[in-house]
Structures are given as structure tokens and as C-alpha cells.
TrEMBL record:
<dbReference type="Pfam" id="PF01761">
    <property type="entry name" value="DHQ_synthase"/>
</dbReference>
<keyword id="KW-0170">Cobalt</keyword>
<comment type="pathway">
    <text>Metabolic intermediate biosynthesis; chorismate biosynthesis; chorismate from D-erythrose 4-phosphate and phosphoenolpyruvate: step 2/7.</text>
</comment>
<feature type="binding site">
    <location>
        <position position="185"/>
    </location>
    <ligand>
        <name>Zn(2+)</name>
    </ligand>
</feature>
<comment type="similarity">
    <text>Belongs to the sugar phosphate cyclases superfamily. Dehydroquinate synthase family.</text>
</comment>
<feature type="binding site">
    <location>
        <begin position="106"/>
        <end position="110"/>
    </location>
    <ligand>
        <name>NAD(+)</name>
    </ligand>
</feature>
<feature type="domain" description="3-dehydroquinate synthase C-terminal">
    <location>
        <begin position="182"/>
        <end position="331"/>
    </location>
</feature>
<feature type="binding site">
    <location>
        <position position="249"/>
    </location>
    <ligand>
        <name>Zn(2+)</name>
    </ligand>
</feature>
<dbReference type="InterPro" id="IPR056179">
    <property type="entry name" value="DHQS_C"/>
</dbReference>
<dbReference type="InterPro" id="IPR016037">
    <property type="entry name" value="DHQ_synth_AroB"/>
</dbReference>
<keyword id="KW-0862">Zinc</keyword>
<feature type="binding site">
    <location>
        <begin position="130"/>
        <end position="131"/>
    </location>
    <ligand>
        <name>NAD(+)</name>
    </ligand>
</feature>
<feature type="binding site">
    <location>
        <position position="267"/>
    </location>
    <ligand>
        <name>Zn(2+)</name>
    </ligand>
</feature>
<comment type="function">
    <text>Catalyzes the conversion of 3-deoxy-D-arabino-heptulosonate 7-phosphate (DAHP) to dehydroquinate (DHQ).</text>
</comment>
<dbReference type="InterPro" id="IPR030963">
    <property type="entry name" value="DHQ_synth_fam"/>
</dbReference>
<keyword id="KW-0456">Lyase</keyword>
<dbReference type="InterPro" id="IPR050071">
    <property type="entry name" value="Dehydroquinate_synthase"/>
</dbReference>
Length: 369
């Protein structure tokens, strides 16, 4: 069991990484849980797989449980989903001093965290992430949001959890595609600031993605430590340090929008493809060597993740995809900042990408074979 402290200007909390944490939630999170009834937000898939274990653990700790179950997928992160959850929290009588539990992947964590941020002007919440992507990235750092017609995560708040329990055992039931999608975020931490970890990812991807619990725990712990250090410097993305965590996301979010925020392209898959595009665009601008971009492309591909825009087969041209990038929440004055690479392990913020050039680059990538 590893314990990692996260300290930000607004809150300090602990992330616990290990096995069997759901069974021990009464002991590990007891000080945070209401004495009478614990409100848990989850999706239908997670409840079917792990709901009985969580309920048994909470019942054993003397707590009753109330479930709010949403449909799996990005569709839950909507105005309607937020309204339904907010009304439910009010009906349940959740007090400002209470903590609700987000038991699921990134969608559940984003939705429950945002609802907690606005419930009676802010109540607490605990993250129990059930996917690799959520464990290594979205459950830590306090970003919460829903999607809107304007784009992904455009409405939200920074609201830090009181505690994060990353139970490695929960990954055993994760579909292979979801596990691989989460591994994209693991690779990201190597690309933005740790070449040695990127090489670790390339060497250990097959075993980690198979069934090696020790490697999974090592990856989760490493990524959380890296994110904790970044968030401590830049909680709300004001100085640029935290912006590096968006490597691949500006391209990726546009591609998610182009595919209708559907199962056709999972978030982690979009990030992987976005990182490959960021590397290739860095080459176009003369920032990154072709050899480095090819190494990145190969590692992404060998991890079973998409690295070719042409292979995605979307019916859109470069101009249309670039226009979707303008909906990125970091865009300002018609300019879109991109996270690009100088080397593997050295990312930087390119503040005002030329969208006409980006569109031309994307047209080339759409036709590449």
C-alpha cells in the first residue's frame, strides 16, 4: 500500500494505492463518511461488477448505502445528468460537511465531483476510481466537469476530493480496450517530463496490460506522484505547469467531438492519437526529431492504441477538425495553445498555434497510409 500526499492551495489530501482497498473502505475512509447513510454515485457496469463488494464493506462498517446509478459512457456528463444528480443529493439530505463517494471511471468522477462542488455551495467527495485512466489521472487534481453543446468539459469547477482510494484489484474486471485506453495517460507522464518512465512504459506495457498487479501498482503510484507535484505548483492551470498534462488532449477532444463522443473513440484512445499527432506536428515545426516521433508512434501502436488519423476513418477534413479545436476551454482570442515536444520527456506550451497550418497538417494526416 502506497500513500501519496497531494497538497494544493485549496486543500490537502491523501491518495492510497494498493489492493483490497474497497474491502477496507470503512477503515480507510471512516472519518470522511456520514454515520447514517453514504451516498454513492456509480454507473450500471460498475455497480453490477463491484457494487456488492462496496455495499458489504460499508454495511460492515455500520453504514447504510444509497445508490445513484447513471448510464455508462460520456452521455452521463450532461446538464440533464447533473440536474438529476443534484436533485437526488438534495432529496437524500446530504449536508455540506458530508462526503459523497464517486465509484467509477472518469465520467463518474467528473460528474459526482462537479455535483459536490455546487451542492449547497460545496460538499465533500471521495474518489474510488475503477479504471486505469481514472486511477492515474482524472481522480487526482480536482478537475470536475460536464460536457455541453460547445464541447467537452466546458462547464465545471476545480474541487479537490477529500481522499482517493486507487484499488488495483478493480482493474481485473476492466475490459481490455478500457485498460489500453487508460494506458495512454500512463505514457503521457513519460512524454511530458520523464524519458526514463516512457522507456519503462515501452518495456513493460505487455505485462502490465496482461495481468501484472505489481506493474499496475507501480504505474499508478508513479503517475500520481508526478501529477501531485505538478498540481502543487499550479492547481488551476494558471502558470502553465499543469497545462503540460494536456498533451494530446486538444487534438483528442476535437476528435472525440468529430466522432460524437461515442464508443467509436474512447477518451484514452483519443489522447493516444492526440499525442501521436502532437509529436508529428512538433516535427513539422522543427521542434522534435523524426526518430523521436517514430519512437512515440511505435510505443503507442505496440500498446494497442491508435496512432494513425487516417485509420480512424472519420468523415471530416482538417479545417473542420481544427475548428473543433477552437472549442477547447483553453482557447482565447481565436488562438489555441498546443502542448508540443522538444524531446521525449520534454514538453512545452506552444501558445498560439496557427490553425490554418494545423488544418493543413491534419489534411495530410487524414490521407496518410
Amino acid at each position: 500500500m502506497d500513500r501519496i500526499g497531494v497538497s494544493t492551495p485549496s486543500a490537502s489530501y491523501e491518495v492510497i494505492v494498493g489492493r483490497g482497498l474497497v474491502d477496507a473502505i470503512g477503515l480507510l475512509a471512516g472519518d470522511f463518511l456520514p454515520e447514517a447513510r453514504v451516498c454513492v454515485v456509480t454507473d450500471g457496469n460498475v455497480k453490477a461488477l463491484h457494487g456488492a463488494a462496496l455495499e458489504a464493506a460499508l454495511t460492515g462498517a455500520g453504514r447504510a448505502i444509497a445508490w445513484h446509478v447513471v448510464d455508462p459512457g460520456e452521455g452521463a456528463k450532461s446538464w440533464q445528468g447533473l440536474e438529476a444528480l443534484s436533485d437526488w443529493l438534495l432529496e437524500q439530505g446530504v449536508a455540506r460537511g458530508d462526503h459523497i463517494v464517486a465509484f467509477g471511471g472518469g465520467v463518474v468522477g467528473d460528474l459526482a465531483g462537479f455535483a459536490a462542488a455546487i451542492h449547497k455551495r460545496g460538499c465533500g467527495f471521495i474518489q474510488v476510481p475503477t479504471t486505469l485512466l481514472a486511477q492515474v489521472d482524472s481522480s487526482v487534481g480536482g478537475k470536475t466537469a460536464i460536457n455541453s453543446a460547445a464541447g467537452k468539459n466546458m462547464v465545471g469547477a476545480f474541487h479537490q476530493p477529500g481522499l482517493v482510494l486507487a484499488d488495483i484489484d478493480l482493474l481485473d474486471t476492466l475490459p481490455e480496450r478500457e485498460l489500453r485506453a487508460g494506458f495512454a495517460e500512463v505514457i503521457k507522464y513519460g512524454l511530458i517530463g520523464d524519458r526514463g518512465f516512457f522507456e519503462w512504459c515501452a518495456a513493460n506495457a505487455p505485462a502490465l496490460l496482461a495481468d501484472d498487479h505489481d506493474l499496475r501498482g507501480e504505474a499508478v503510484t508513479h503517475c500520481i506522484r508526478a501529477k501531485a507535484a505538478i498540481v502543487a505548483k499550479d492547481e488551476t492551470e494558471r502558470t502553465g505547469a499543469r497545462a503540460l498534462l494536456n498533451l494530446g488532449h486538444t487534438f483528442g477532444h476535437a476528435l472525440e467531438a468529430a466522432t460524437g463522443f461515442s464508443d467509436r473513440l474512447l477518451h484514452g484512445e483519443a489522447v493516444a492519437l492526440g499525442m501521436a499527432l502532437a509529436a508529428k506536428y512538433s516535427v513539422r515545426l522543427g521542434c522534435l526529431s523524426i526518430n523521436a516521433a517514430q519512437q512515440i508512434d511505435e510505443t503507442i501502436g505496440l500498446s494497442g492504441l491508435p496512432s494513425s488519423l487516417a485509420a480512424l476513418g472519420i468523415k471530416a477534413n482538417g479545417e473542420a477538425i481544427a475548428a473543433l479545436m477552437l472549442h477547447d476551454k483553453k482557447a482565447s482570442g481565436g488562438k489555441v495553445p498546443l502542448i508540443l515536444l522538444r524531446e521525449i520527456g520534454e514538453a512545452f506550451v506552444h501558445p498560439d498555434a496557427d490553425l490554418e497550418d494545423v488544418a493543413a497538417f491534419l489534411d495530410t494526416e487524414l490521407q496518410a497510409h
